[in-house]
Amino acid sequence: MFGNEGMGYGRFLYHTNHLHCENIPLTHLAQRFGTPLYVYSRAAILENAQAYRAHAPHAARVCFAVKANGNPTILRLLADAGLGADVTSGGELFLALKAGFAPETIIYSGVGKLHHEIEAALAAQIRALHVESAMELELIAAIASQRQQVASIGVRVNPDIHVETHPAISTGAAQHKFGVAPETAVTLLHQAAQHPWLKPVGLAAHLGSQIHEIAPFTAAANFLVALADELASGGIRLDYLDVGGGLGVAYEREKWEVKSEKIGEWVTAVAAPIQAAGYQLVIEPGRSIVAEAGVLLTQVVYTKPQGKKMFAIVDAAMNDLIRPTLYNAHHEILEVRRTSKVDRTCTYDIVGPICETGDFLARERPFPPLAPGDLLAVCHAGAYGFAMSSNYNGRLRPAEVLVDGENVHLIRQRQTYEHLLDGT
Length: 424
Ligand SMILES: Cc1ncc(COP(=O)(O)O)c(C=O)c1O
Prior knowledge:
The protein is α/β, with parallel strands linked by helices. Helices cover 29% and strands 25% of the residues. It contains 11 helices and 21 strands. It has helices at 26-33, 42-55, 72-80, 90-99, 115-124, 134-147, 182-194, 215-233, 259-276, 287-290, 323-327, and strands at 8-9, 12-15, 18-21, 24-25, 37-41, 61-65, 84-87, 106-108, 128-131, 151-156, 198-204, 240-242, 280-283, 294-306, 309-314, 333-335, 346-351, 360-367, 375-378, 399-404, 407-412. Pyridoxal-5'-phosphate is lined by residues 65, 67-68, 86, 109, 169, 206, 209, 244-246, 284-288.
């Protein structure tokens, strides 16, 4: 089922030459809802979420990183499946609470939390604020004192572990803006322990996103255990250790894999040292839960030979899915209706209509000859897809649908031009 271009992948498989999401042909969705359109498989989201839950120790907390996909229906699905939430702004906190995540399962990371965001987190009584600087701790202490409410504090420590990923999403090395150095983490947790309105509860690290190797994560888990044990010997016993985001995703066809199996291996490996040392495990996966569960469905508008190139200009663009433009990220693109004869004799750049040369979804890809009206599915678009979309070039954000077997739910309406006047 995986790695075979003839069949599709996961919950996006061909039946009689038509690509389906679960039991629904994508052509039907395009006709009914238009394109560009984000299409998600409910089963795929739940399988990945359950893979984390099933392999984690009973007391562990799997906090979905809301930044990967903040659609309210998807968040509700994950809250109902027993996950917690990792939020990074007041807006994400609002979404998480609206979706029904229990406050005691919500953690809040981020280097620039504002006064009103800290107030909102304390008012909601979330599990912990993950502090990322001495000044932030001071502000939390002031707000907690004023509210006469104990604030639970985790400190995000920078383990200075180098990882193989795109520089823009590597976050755990000493030169990055995130977290604090280990010595500072110890100092801040001691300060918190001595403050009447602060309570140190956890230590967190996040190495970065889109990391495939398990070893750096186990190194981070061991690092956290060592630091927490050092704190315990100084009288501060923490409740939990948080190893941050989850596994990377295999975007390239040759590497497609059964995500849920790899997730099991990953969780078992990171949980081992933390459980052995008697701490609760917290993890914050985003990408690996939703990426493969979503595609961006788009339609060819024109084809255009230019110089030595052939462009297929489609109705989706960098405002809908910015990962190729931003990180040179690779997304496989499948024809939604394919001919039975595989005839990939043409090479296309798949580009959008935005006025930037960097507006592309794929470059130099083999396809059969494409024509206006052909539907394409941009694969593994469920994470950091819609979440990073914008109205750039006056374009409307696309609609989102969730497929559940034979049922389809519109989970976000396509914007209209009136939305471009919002707030004016
Ligand atoms: C603090 C934090 N936690 C969790 C995540 C989620 O990471 P991923 O989507 O790779 O699982 C991120 C993403 O960068 C993050 O910054």
